[in-house]
TrEMBL record:
Span of domain Helicase C-terminal: 260-450
Organism placement in taxonomy: Eukaryota, Fungi, Fungi incertae sedis, Zoopagomycota, Kickxellomycotina
Keywords: ATP-binding, Helicase, Hydrolase, Nucleotide-binding
Domain Helicase ATP-binding, residue spans: 37-182
Species per Swiss-Prot/TrEMBL record: Coemansia reversa (strain ATCC 12441 / NRRL 1564)
Protein name: P-loop containing nucleoside triphosphate hydrolase protein
C-alpha cells in the first residue's frame, strides 16, 4: 500500500477550499467528513463531535468504504462489542443504500483494550476511534494508545464522540491530542427531527425532574445508608434511592420498596413502547424484572412471537449474549412491534447507553442520575435519532422523558440530619443539580466551539470544482452531471479493458451545485459488457475496438477469453463456425446483423439511455 503523505496543519479557512465529496444518500454534514478526510487530501484528521443522532457512525462507514476503494487499510477502534457491531450494521446499511460492493473484510475492527495490549503496526490508512469519550487522558490505556498513533505519521485519524466533555471542558484537549494538539473540531447542532420531547415532572431551578417520595422500608434503608456513608462515597445511598433491597417482596406495597419503580409501573401504557435505563443490576434491573413478572408481564425470549394480548419486557445488560442483544433490538424495532406486540418495555443497564438505536419509543425513564449529564444524553440519544419515530403516525411522534429523583419530604422532621425547612432533599437531587451545572458550563463552551470549529453546520464550499473534460469515452455528460468512469475499468499494462467493471469507483460532478458524488452511476447510464451465454460483439471504451466473445473462442491467454477476440483477428474457419451456430451466411457482416437483431451487439460500452 502506498503511504499517505505527511499532513499539513489545517486551518479554519480550509472549509472554503474543499471540494464537496459525498455519496448520493449522505447528508451535508456527512459529506463534509468525506471531503475533509478524503484519502488524497493532506490533512491528518479531525475530532468529530456531531450531536447524538446526526449520523456520525454512518459517515465513518462511508469514509471507510472510500478508503478501501483507494486501496488503504482501515482500522476501527471502540471500547465494547455493541459499538463494533453497530459500525458493521451501519456499514452494511450504507453499501446497501448505494448498491456498492461489500468491503467489510478490508476493515479491521478491534477493541481499545486489544489495541492497547497488542500494539499493532499501522502501515498507513485510516484509524477511526468511536465513542472516544471512553478514552480519557487519565485512563491507563491513553498514553500507550496515543504513543502508537504518534509514531505512525502516515495515517489519518478520525476521533468520534457526541460528548467530548463529560465532567470538565478540559477533557476535549486530550481527545484532540490523539490526532495532534491543534486538531480541528467538527461540530453540529442536534439533528432536526419530528419528535416532540416532553419532560415529565416538577420544574426545579436546574431543570424538570420526576420526584418520588421515599416511604416505609425504602426510607429507613436510605437514612441508614446516608448515616453510614463515608465522605463522598455514596454507592449504598444511590442504590437505596432506587430500591430498599435486592429482592421484591409481594407482601409489601411497592411504593414502600421503591418509589421510582412505582411511578414507572404506573406510567406504562399498553400499546406504547417504553425504554428504561438503570445503572444498577441487582437493586435495579433485577428488581424491576420481579415487579413486572408479578404484574402480568412476561419476559421476552428470542423465539417469542407477536401476540397483542401478552405484555412483554426484554433485558439488555453486560451479561446478555451478542445473539440475544441483537435479537432483542431487532424485535423491538420491527414494524410488528410498533404497539408493543412483541416487546413493550426494554430494560437496559449502562451497556444500552451507546451505539444502540431503539425505535418508536414513547416513554424513556432514567432511573439513576449521574454526576455528569453526558451519560443521560447518551441514554436519550438511543431513542431520539434521525428517523427513529418515522413509522409512527405524526400525532404519536412524541417522547415523554422521566428523569427520576427519589427524595425525602419535610426533612426538618429528621433533626439528626441537620437539615431544616427543606421541601425535597436526596442524593438524586444533588446529582441532578451537579450534572446540570456541568452541562451548562460545557454547553457554553460548545457554543464557542461552534463558532471556531472547521464546520458548524453552515458549510457552503466556494471553491471551483475541478471537473475533467468530457471525452465521450470514459468521461461523459448526462443531464446536469459529468461522470468520470476512468477508475471503474480493470485494465492491463497495454491499457486494454477487461470485462471486469467496478462501478463503485465512479465519480459524478454536479455542474449546478459543484458537489462530487461517489458511487455507481444512476439508472440512465448503462455499462455494456459481454453477455453470459452465446455470442456478443462489443466495443471497449478504452481502446475503442470491436471484439467478439463466446466460450468457444478460447485464447491461449486465459484472461483474453473474458474480453473476447478482436473482430479483425477472427479467421475464416472461426467465421464459418460462428455463422453455422447462428444459422447465417458465412461472412462477418451477416454475423453482426444477426447479433444486432438479438440485442447482442454493443457499439458503445458506455451508453446514456
Amino acid at each position: 500500500m502506498d503511504a499517505i503523505k505527511l499532513f499539513k496543519k489545517p486551518s479554519v479557512s480550509i472549509t472554503d477550499d474543499l471540494e464537496c465529496y459525498g455519496y448520493e444518500l449522505t447528508f451535508t454534514n456527512q459529506k463534509f467528513v468525506l471531503s475533509y478526510m478524503h484519502p488524497l487530501l493532506p490533512y491528518r484528521g479531525m475530532l468529530l463531535t456531531y450531536q447524538l443522532g446526526n449520523g456520525k457512525t454512518y459517515a465513518a462507514a462511508a469514509l471507510s468504504h472510500l478508503y478501501t476503494t483507494y486501496g488503504f487499510d482501515v482500522l476501527f477502534l471502540s471500547h465494547n462489542l455493541n459499538v463494533k457491531e453497530n459500525f458493521k450494521k451501519e456499514y452494511l446499511t450504507f453499501i446497501r443504500n448505494h448498491n456498492l460492493d461489500n468491503n467489510i473484510k478490508k476493515i479491521k475492527r478491534m477493541g481499545l483494550t486489544k489495541f492497547f495490549i497488542s500494539k499493532p503496526d499501522i502501515n498507513g490508512g485510516l484509524v477511526i476511534i468511536d465513542e472516544a469519550h471512553n478514552l480519557r487522558e487519565n485512563a491507563n490505556r491513553y498514553p500507550e494508545i496515543k504513543n502508537i498513533l504518534d509514531k505512525n505519521k502516515n495515517i489519518k485519524i478520525l476521533v468520534i464522540t457526541a460528548t467530548p466533555m463529560i465532567d470538565s471542558i478540559n477533557e476535549i484537549d486530550s481527545l484532540r491530542s490523539l490526532i495532534e494538539p491543534s486538531a480541528p473540531i467538527a461540530y453540529s447542532e442536534k439533528a432536526k427531527n419530528t419528535v416532540k420531547i416532553n419532560y415529565i415532572g416538577k420544574e426545579k431551578n436546574f431543570g424538570k425532574i420526576m420526584l418520588s417520595e421515599m416511604k416505609g422500608n425504602q426510607l429507613n434503608t436510605y437514612l441508614k445508608a446516608y448515616k453510614n456513608a463515608h465522605y463522598d462515597v455514596y454507592s449504598e445511598v444511590r442504590q437505596a434511592s432506587v430500591t430498599a433491597s435486592k429482592h421484591y417482596n409481594n407482601n409489601i406495597p411497592l411504593s414502600e420498596q421503591s418509589a421510582k419503580i412505582q411511578i414507572l409501573l404506573d406510567s406504562l401504557i399498553k400499546g406504547e413502547l417504553t425504554a428504561v435505563f438503570c445503572f444498577y443490576i441487582k437493586r435495579g434491573i433485577n428488581f424491576i424484572t420481579s415487579v413486572l413478572l408479578n404484574n402480568g408481564f412476561e419476559q421476552w425470549k428470542p423465539n417469542s412471537m407477536y401476540d397483542e394480548n401478552i405484555r412483554r419486557f426484554a433485558i439488555i445488560t453486560g451479561k446478555t449474549s451478542e445473539y440475544e442483544t441483537s435479537s432483542a433490538i431487532s424485535s423491538f424495532n420491527s414494524i410488528m412491534n410498533i404497539e408493543g406486540g412483541v416487546i413493550e418495555v426494554m430494560l437496559g443497564s449502562s451497556v444500552l447507553n451507546e451505539s444502540i438505536t431503539l425505535k418508536n419509543v414513547r416513554h424513556a425513564h432514567i432511573l439513576t442520575p449521574f454526576w455528569n449529564y453526558g451519560q443521560t444524553e447518551q441514554a436519550l440519544g438511543r431513542v431520539v435519532r434521525i428517523g427513529s419515530h418515522e413509522m409512527l403516525p405524526r400525532k404519536q411522534r412524541t417522547l415523554n422523558v422521566y428523569l427520576h429523583a427519589s427524595h425525602i419530604k419535610n426533612y426538618n422532621k429528621y433533626n439528626d440530619i441537620g437539615k431544616k425547612n427543606v421541601e425535597e432533599i436526596g442524593i438524586d437531587i444533588e446529582m441532578w443539580k451537579t450534572s446540570w451545572r456541568k452541562k451548562e458550563e460545557i454547553n457554553n463552551y460548545i457554543n464557542r466551539i461552534g463558532k471556531l470549529s472547521i464546520w458548524n453546520g453552515k458549510w457552503n464550499p466556494t471553491c471551483e470544482t475541478k471537473i475533467p473534460p468530457v471525452d465521450n469515452k470514459m468521461v461523459i455528460k448526462a443531464n446536469n452531471c459529468i461522470w468520470d468512469l476512468n477508475r471503474c475499468f480493470e485494465t492491463n499494462r497495454s491499457k486494454i479493458s477487461w470485462c471486469n467493471v467496478n462501478l463503485n469507483n465512479a465519480i459524478c460532478y454536479n455542474c449546478d451545485s459543484g458537489e462530487i458524488t461517489l458511487g455507481p452511476p444512476t439508472y440512465y447510464i448503462k455499462i455494456n459488457r459481454p453477455l453470459a451465454e452465446g455470442y456478443t460483439i462489443w466495443r471497449s471504451c478504452v481502446d475503442e475496438k470491436l471484439r467478439l466473445t463466446n466460450n468457444s473462442l478460447k485464447s491461449k491467454n486465459k484472461r483474453c477469453s473474458y474480453r473476447g477476440k478482436l473482430i479483425k483477428n477472427i479467421n475464416k474457419d472461426e467465421i464459418i463456425k460462428i455463422a453455422d451456430d447462428l444459422n447465417v451466411d458465412h461472412n462477418i457482416n451477416a454475423i453482426i446483423e444477426n447479433l444486432k437483431k438479438d440485442n447482442r451487439f454493443f457499439d458503445k460500452q458506455i451508453e446514456i439511455i
